[in-house]
C-alpha cells in the first residue's frame, strides 16, 4: 500500500507522473492495457473513478500533445471498471505504463488479449471459476489421481501434456506399461500411469489377434473421457470450427492413470475387474468408469464388486447410468457409487441461412467443413419435399433443396445436383448428435413458412448458408437428454438412482486419430484431434472431475461424504429458474429417476453444510437385508469382518424412494431414519422444508436440528404416508434443510412409485 497523501498533493503527484510519461521519445508501439487500481486511494475532489481516470488521460493529452518525434498523443481511456474489479483500460505506450506503475493507487497492469469461447464449455456452464469456489479451493485438483477405466489413451494428445505439473506424488504405486506402439516414456507428470488388460478377451477367443496390444486407444472413447475429467489446457480446440476455444478437463491439475479394459475384439468382465482392482492397488483417489453391465445382480456385477473394495479404501467411484433411455433401466444402480445421468448445456451449433431477399435465419448444423453455400437456387417442391425417396431425390433440381422432415437421412442424399439441404425441424430443445454429413441446416417450424413462401414466390429465388457458428446462452438448459437411462435400478431399487445429472450432450474432448469422428456424405470419414459426442459416458467423467476437486479441497471426506455433497447441492432448476425438463417426456418436468437430485453444482458442493455419511459396515448391513446368500455377500465385501447382526435396508442416503404394491388398496406407510453431520464452520440451526409428492403426506421429526459445533451429528426420521393406486402412478417431491442464516440449503429428492422387480 502507498502512503495516503492530502488531496492537493495527490492530484499534483498524479499529474506529474502522468506528464512524465511523455518525457523523451514516445514509444512507436502502443497497446491497450488493463490497469487495476486501489480505489481507496482515489483523491476526494474526484466524483468517482471514471472522473479520476479520464482526468488523468486528459492530463496526458494536454501536457504532452505531441512527442519529441512529432507524433500526436493517442492515449485514450476505453473502459472504467468499478463492480467486479477496480481499474480501467486504456491505450498506452510501454514507457507510459512503466511510469504509471509508480503512481499511487496502481496495483497491476497487463496487455489486453483476445478472448475465446472456452471448451469443453461445460466448465463455464458448471460455474467453475479461477477466482473463487471449488477450483482455487482444490488447487484445480492438484495431486489427486483419477483412474480412468476405459478403452485406453492416446498419449500424444495435447490434453495430456504435463506443463505446469509438479512431481508425481510419492504415494503413487502404478507404472507405465509398455506394449504395442506404447513405451514407458509416453507417460509423464500428467499421465502418470497406463496399463492394459485383455486376458479375458484372449481366453474367450484363444486364436484372436489383438489389433493394438497396449494401453494405446484406437477407439477414442477412453481418450475422450480421460481428457474430460482431467485434461490439461489446449488452445484452439474445436470440432471442425464448432465450439472453438480452449479445451480443459474439469480437474485440469489432477493426475491421470488409464486402465484399458475395452477392446475392439471384446469387452469382458474379467478384464474390467482386473483394471479396477489394479487402479485401487496403484493408489488412485477417484475411479471414472463410463460403462456398465445390464441385467445382473449386485453380487455378479464386476463394477459393484470392485467398487465396494475401492470405497473401503477411500476411493470414490463415478459411473454412467447408461444410454438405453426408456427401453432398458439404468445400470450401475450400486448403493456405494455415484450414478450419473446426462443432460445438455447452454450451447448450440448453428448455420446462418440468408435468403435472396435479405432475410436472415439461424438454423442448427454441425456440417464439418469451413466452406459456405453462396447464392444458389432455392427449391421447394411438395412432391419431393418429404426427401424420403431416392427416386424422387434424383429428380431434384440443381441448388438448395427444402425438405419437410428434419429426420431426413442425409447419407442417402447423394444426388450431385443437390448442393445443400434445408430441413424443417420439430424444434426439440436440443440436438444430441454431431452427425450432419451433408451441407445444410435445420430450421424451426416457425421459420419454415418464411423460407417456403420465398422459395415458392419466384423461380429465381436464391439462398446462402454459412456454417461453423457456436451460440452460447441457450435456454432452457440443462434439459435431461433423451438417451439417458432411467431408474429405479432393478439391481437394488431401494436406493434412488441416478444420483445427479451432469453435462453429457455434444461434449468436446480429445480423440484418437485412429478412429473417425464424423463423415461427409456416405463414404468419406473424417478424423480429428477432438470429437464432440453425447452419452452418459460423457457425463460420468464430469462428475469424476468434480469428485477429484472435492477430494483435493476436503481430503478427509469419505467417498460417501463426497457423494452426499454432490447430491444435496444439485440444482433441480434450469437457467430459466424453472424445473429441469425431460426431452424424453416431451419436455415435461424431469423426475428424480431421470436426473437424480438435479444438475451438479460444484461450487455449492464445496460447502454443503450437512452431509449424509455411511461406513462400509452400513453398506454391509444393507447387503445383509437383501435376499442373497452369505457367500454372495462375501463376494462383494470380501471379508468376514462385517457382521450381519443388524441388517437394514434403510441406508443413510441423501435421497428417498418408496414403493407401493400395485392393485393393493389401503394407506401405506414407510419410515426412514437419517443422520446428518454438520460440516459447516460451527454452531448452527436448520429448519425443515417439505415439498410432498402428490398424494403423499410427509412427516419429519424433529423439524429443527440444532448443532453446537462442527462435525456434530443429528438424527431425524422421515415418514411417507401415501395411498396405493390401481394404476401405475409415480410422484416426487423433496425435503430441504434450510440453515437459519440462509447460507446452506441441503436438499434431498423423494420419489414414490409402484414396486419394481429386482434382478
Automatic annotation (TrEMBL):
Q: Which UniProt keywords apply?
A: Glycoprotein, Hydrolase, Protease, Secreted, Serine protease, Signal
Q: Which CDD domains match?
A: Peptidases_S8_3
PROSITE patterns per record: SUBTILASE, SUBTILASE_SER
Q: Which domain of life is it from?
A: Eukaryota
- Presence of keyword Protein biosynthesis: no
Record's protein name: Subtilisin-like protease
Report TM segments.
none
- A Pfam family annotated for this chain is Inhibitor_I9
Amino acid at each position: 500500500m502507498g502512503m495516503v497523501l492530502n488531496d492537493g498533493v495527490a492530484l499534483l503527484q498524479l499529474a506529474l507522473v502522468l506528464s512524465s510519461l511523455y518525457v523523451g521519445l514516445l514509444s512507436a508501439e502502443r497497446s491497450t492495457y488493463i490497469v487495476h487500481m486501489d480505489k481507496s486511494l482515489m483523491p476526494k475532489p474526484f466524483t468517482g473513478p471514471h472522473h479520476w481516470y479520464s482526468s488523468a488521460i486528459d492530463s496526458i493529452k494536454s501536457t504532452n500533445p505531441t512527442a519529441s518525434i512529432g507524433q500526436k498523443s493517442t492515449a485514450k481511456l476505453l473502459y472504467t471498471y468499478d463492480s467486479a474489479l477496480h481499474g480501467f483500460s486504456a491505450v498506452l505506450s510501454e514507457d507510459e505504463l512503466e511510469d504509471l506503475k509508480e503512481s499511487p493507487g496502481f496495483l497491476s497492469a497487463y496487455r489486453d488479449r483476445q478472448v475465446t469461447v472456452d471448451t469443453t464449455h461445460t466448465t463455464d456452464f458448471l460455474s467453475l471459476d479461477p477466482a473463487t469456489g471449488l477450483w482455487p479451493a482444490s488447487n484445480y485438483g492438484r495431486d489427486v489421481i483419477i483412474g480412468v477405466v476405459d478403452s485406453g489413451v492416446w498419449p500424444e494428445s495435447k490434453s495430456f501434456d504435463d506443463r505446469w505439473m509438479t512431481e508425481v506424488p510419492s504415494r503413487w504405486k502404478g507404472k507405465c506399461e509398455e506394449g504395442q506402439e506404447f513405451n514407458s516414456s509416453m507417460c509423464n507428470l500428467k499421465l502418470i500411469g497406463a496399463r492394459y488388460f485383455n486376458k479375458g478377451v484372449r481366453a474367450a477367443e484363444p486364436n484372436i489377434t489383438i489389433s493394438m496390444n497396449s494401453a494405446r486407444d484406437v477407439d477414442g472413447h477412453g481418450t475422450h473421457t480421460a481428457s474430460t475429467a482431467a485434461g490439461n489446457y489446449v488452445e484452439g480446440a474445436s470440432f471442425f470450427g464448432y465450439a472453438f476455444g480452449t479445451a480443459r478437463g474439469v480437474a485440469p491439475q489432477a493426475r491421470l492413470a488409464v486402465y484399458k479394459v475395452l477392446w475392439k475384439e471384446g469387452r469382458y468382465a474379467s478384464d474390467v475387474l482386473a483394471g479396477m482392482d489394479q487402479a485401487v492397488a496403484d493408489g488412485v483417489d477417484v475411479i471414472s468408469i463410463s460403462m456398465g453391465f445390464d441385467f445382473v445382480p449386485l453380487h455378479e456385477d464386476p463394477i459393484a464388486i470392485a467398487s465396494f473394495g475401492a470405497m473401503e479404501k477411500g476411493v470414490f467411484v463415478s459411473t454412467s447410468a447408461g444410454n438405453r433411455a426408456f427401453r432398458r433401466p439404468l445400470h450401475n444402480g450400486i448403493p456405494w457409487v455415484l450414478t450419473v445421468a446426462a443432460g445438455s448445456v447452454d450451447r448450440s451449433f448453428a448455420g446462418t441461412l440468408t435468403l435472396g431477399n435479405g432475410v436472415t435465419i439461424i438454423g442448427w448444423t454441425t456440417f464439418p467443413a469451413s466452406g459456405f453455400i453462396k447464392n444458389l437456387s432455392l427449391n421447394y417442391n411438395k412432391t419431393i419435399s418429404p426427401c424420403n425417396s431416392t427416386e424422387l431425390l434424383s429428380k431434384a433440381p440443381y441448388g438448395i433443396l427444402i425438405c419437410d422432415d428434419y429426420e431426413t437421412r442425409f447419407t442417402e442424399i447423394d444426388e450431385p445436383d443437390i448442393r445443400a439441404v434445408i430441413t424443417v425441424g420439430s424444434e426439440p430443445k436440443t440436438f444430441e448428435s454431431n452427425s450432419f454429413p451433408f451441407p445444410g441446416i435445420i430450421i424451426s417450424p416457425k421459420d419454415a413458412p418464411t423460407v417456403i413462401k420465398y422459395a415458392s414466390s419466384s423461380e429465381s429465388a436464391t439462398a446462402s448458408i454459412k456454417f461453423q457458428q457456436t451460440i452460447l446462452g441457450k435456454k432452457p438448459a440443462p434439459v435431461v437428454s433423451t438417451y439417458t437411462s432411467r431408474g429405479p435400478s432393478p439391481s437394488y431399487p431401494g436406493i434412488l438412482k441416478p444420483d445427479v445429472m451432469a453435462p453429457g450432450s455434444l461434449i468436446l474432448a480429445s480423440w484418437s486419430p485412429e478412429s473417425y469422428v464424423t463423415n461427409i456424405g456416405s463414404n468419406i470419414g473424417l478424423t480429428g484431434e477432438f470429437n464432440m459426442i453425447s452419452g452418459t459416458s460423457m457425463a460420468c467423467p464430469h462428475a469424476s472431475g468434480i469428485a477429484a476437486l472435492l477430494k483435493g479441497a476436503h481430503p478427509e471426506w469419505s467417498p460417501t461424504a463426497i457423494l452426499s455433497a454432490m447430491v444435496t447441492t444439485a440444482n433441480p432448476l434450469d437457467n430459466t429458474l424453472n424445473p429441469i425438463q425431460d426431452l424424453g417426456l416431451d419436455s415435461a418436468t424431469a423426475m428424480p429417476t431421470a436426473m437424480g437430485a438435479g444438475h451438479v453444482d460444484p461450487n455449492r458442493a464445496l460447502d454443503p453444510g450437512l452431509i449424509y455419511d455411511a461406513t462400509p459396515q452400513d453398506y454391509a448391513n444393507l447387503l445383509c437385508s437383501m435376499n442373497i446368500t452369505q457367500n454372495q455377500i462375501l463376494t462383494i465385501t470380501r471379508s468376514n469382518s462385517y457382521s450381519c447382526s443388524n441388517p437394514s435396508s434403510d441406508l443413510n442416503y441423501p435421497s428417498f424412494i418408496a414403493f407401493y404394491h400395485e392393485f393393493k388398496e389401503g394407506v401405506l406407510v414407510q419410515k426412514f431414519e437419517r443422520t446428518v453431520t454438520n460440516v459447516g464452520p460451527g454452531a448452527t440451526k436448520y429448519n425443515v422444508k417439505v415439498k410432498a409428492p402428490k398424494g403423499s403426506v410427509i412427516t419429519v421429526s424433529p423439524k429443527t436440528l440444532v448443532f453446537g459445533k462442527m462435525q456434530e451429528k443429528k438424527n431425524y426420521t422421515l415418514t411417507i404416508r401415501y395411498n396405493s393406486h390401481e394404476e401405475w402412478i409415480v410422484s416426487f417431491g423433496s425435503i430441504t434443510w434450510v440453515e437459519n442464516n440462509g447460507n446452506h440449503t441441503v436438499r434431498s429428492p423423494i420419489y414414490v412409485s409402484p414396486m419394481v422387480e429386482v434382478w
